[in-house]
Amino acid sequence: xxxxxxxxxxxxxxxxxxxxxxxxxxxxxxxxxxxxxxxxxxxxxxxxxxxxxxxxxxxxxxxxxxxxxxxxxxxxxxxxxxxxxx
Amino acid sequence: xxxxxxxxxxxxxxxxxxxxxxxxxxxxxxxxxxxxxxxxxxxxxxxxxxxxxxxxxxxxxxxxxxxxxxxxxxxxxxxxxxxxxxxxxxxxxxxxxxxxxxxxxxxxxxxxxxxxxx
Lengths: 86, 118
What we know:
A: 3 helices; flat; B: 81% helix
């Protein structure tokens, strides 16, 4: 029961990442691509936590936390650059 | 007790997966940058928080670090979406509104500020 629901959730999340990648390739402006990147980053954090549960590794939660911090700073820097303030 | 925690965790996990999928779908289907920003950020915030909390219920020893991740997502995701919307507005990509420009109050504030500076 647990395994089936975990794999269904994994399929949903991978489909969401694929849709974001399509928008990242198609997106007409820079802002669309950055929004798609932001969405991909949040889904990837959740995906790392789910992989930590599947493989039973506690360390992946630390990886998810560090990836979240670095991605957050990256998105802020891209936003400031788009504003023209950097 | 373990079975009750498992059922709560699985329900939260499924809700999180569905909302993350809806976030990706909104990114693909919405017509405007601001609509994409709203769909992608709000649905993804709820989905990520629910999924990580569900993992914390399933594996009871991980609940502290899962709570740290949930609080971090709840802080960082609205800040980044706010910065992106502000940057997109400053690049003069205005939102298309049904009532024309009279509902765009942020632009009126900016125009008054420019008049004062002139």
